[in-house]
Amino acid sequence: MSFSVQDQGPFPGIDFAMSLDRRAELTDNRVMELTATTPVHLIHVDPDVNMARFYGIELQPTLFGEVSVLRTWGRIGTNGQAMLVTYEDAAQASEALHNLEKQKLRRGYVPVGE
Question: Which InterPro entries match (predicted)?
Answer without folding.
Answer: WGR_dom_sf, WGR_domain, YehF/YfeS-like_WGR
